[in-house]
Amino acid sequence: MRRLFATLGAVALVVASTPVHAEKMILKFGHVGDPGSLYEGAVNEFARIANAKLGDKAEVQVFGSSQLGKDKEMLQKLKLGQITFSLPSSIMSSVADEFGVFEMPYIIKSREHMMAVQKSIGESVFNKAAKAKGYRILTYFENGFRHITNNTRPINKPEDLAGIKLRTPNGEWRVKMFQSYGANPTPMAFSDVFTALKTGVIDGQENPYAQIYGRPSSRRCKSACRSPATCTRRPTSPCRKSTSPNCPADIQKALQEAADESADHVQMAADLENKLLGELKAAGMQVNEADKDAFIAASRRSTTSSPSTVEGGPALIEAVRAVAR
């Protein structure tokens, strides 16, 4: 059974603990995932394991569906100590350039490749980059492979994206990728997607099936295709081995153990993707397989230009690719 890691997902831990009484702290975990999403399953599993270990000392409370704010807002709240955990993904490429490597099309070959990247250079590159910006990565969860859904037409080749207003996460490299395909990428918080689709601000989105299915409004898109994007990293955000200095050592230890264990026991992303794809088809969504080779060829423009704008970019890309060999 393959481990559920990735890019995909990370859990951020910062200096936030809210006392409930003299002996117990409330540790708030905010995320943007809707009910039924991979986010929800991963975070709930982490909270279940953590609370069993913490007992009466502390309690992890989960707030999904952007209840505590959008990703950008929650990252700020982490720094201010207003929440304890967050689960950012693509937005981390706007926090530290190193995370932009996961935005590059087809650079990650498989879930196994993603796991190998995190094990080989996660600590020295990504965890270090997050720490320099004031965040710490506790562990990584996966958000699934990304796909395109839209209300305009089936997407078979890059040229089919011409003129389509497509919601993407914030991230310079992701935007450049879709611009190279001819689309009109529109960076936007996930919580704004429903209104944007309804009002015609965007024609579609690029998201994992778990996010598409989790938000009923997103299912209104008439067609879906395999997206030319990577396995997301999720996180891609803050905190692997660290815990807040405001938390006692025993609480920090329990949280780290829970993070490690939950990364192994969350429902596998692959199983969830297959299940949700079947349900999307049953709901009437037209699904087609895009011409992967055509997208790979078109992607060479963005994979050549984007790294040149980031210090150490070419070397990082080579390190990621080397792990897959």
Lay out the secondary structure.
Layout: E1 7-8, E2 10-13, E3 18-21, E4 24-30, H1 38-54, E5 58-63, H2 71-80, E6 85-86, H3 111-132, E7 137-140, E8 144-150, E9 165-168, H4 172-181, E10 184-187, H5 193-199, E11 204-208, H6 209-214, E12 223-233, H7 249-265, H8 269-282, E13 286-288, H9 292-305, H10 313-323
Descriptive notes:
The longest helix has 22 residues. Helix 1 links the parallel strand 4 and strand 5. The protein contains ten helices and 13 strands. The chain is of the alpha/beta class. The relative contact order is 0.22. Strands 1, 8, 9, 10, 11, 12 and 13 form a seven-stranded mixed beta sheet that branches. The protein is globular and about 60 Å long. The N terminus is likely disordered. Helix 1 packs across helix 7 and helix 4 packs across helix 9.
